[in-house]
């Protein structure tokens, strides 16, 4: 294993690249116009859009070629060809160079007029410059009569109806066309957020609970045997173990009540009173017999 393998023997580099052998590896030195690990990719010099004036770019090896539109020349199509250089206009007409073309003009008309004798008033309204209104043509210009709710030279600005509004209690004004809308904070309602909301209107309290309206909230006063934010939770009276001395607790059919079943020798509502079976009125012995 004393001989190092020359990875360049398999000719891994493409497109005339130079292969440099390294320990257990190789690297390629690419010719201009190529890239990649093995110089397999042709660099697209058209990617940066070097050609100007909408010219077409053709990618070449280590270069590119611009195919110019009519009227342009140069390596990047950067030069506008002066079509007036050949004096194409006759009879004293003025030649006006244009991109890829030219025009002949006999008269230099004042602004707002056109035609061979400048007899035509240019209609500046033909381009429909008024966005939300009627256009009146004037000499070398136009005037827009805006529809209601719009302003600006071209009627392109929607008038902000929130500039003067009646929204109350720190509500937010939202501009609409020819009107506005008040977006109320929680706890307020009405067209202008002028009324405090009554959260009890939706009857949130259940099981005959009484609703007490608060600001942006409510409170339920529950009837006997019910609890919870909306009085929907049945109170389990026996959960608190009210019956004493080993008595058994039963929920009553009447809401909010319970019954204690006492063990022997205990009595009372909660079986809290102990008694002797030989004492009155519990003594079962009769005819002056003795209870033991």
From TrEMBL:
Q: Which organism was this protein described from?
A: Pedionomus torquatus (Plains-wanderer)
A GO cellular component annotated for this chain's UniProt record is:
protein-containing complex
**Record keywords, A-Z:** Disulfide bond, EGF-like domain, Glycoprotein, Repeat, Signal
Matching entries from PROSITE patterns are given as:
ASX_HYDROXYL (PS00010), EGF_1 (PS00022), EGF_2 (PS01186), EGF_3 (PS50026), EGF_CA (PS01187)
Disulphide bonds in the chain: 30-39, 68-77, 125-135, 146-155, 184-193, 222-231, 243-260, 262-271
Name the Gene Ontology molecular function terms of this record: calcium ion binding
Checking Pfam families in the record gives: EGF (PF00008), hEGF (PF12661)
- The name this protein carries in UniProt is EYS protein
Q: Does the keyword Disulfide bond apply?
A: yes
Instruction: Give the EGF-like domain ranges.
Output: 4-40, 42-78, 80-119, 121-156, 158-194, 196-232, 234-272
GO annotation terms (biological process): establishment or maintenance of epithelial cell apical/basal polarity; heterophilic cell-cell adhesion via plasma membrane cell adhesion molecules
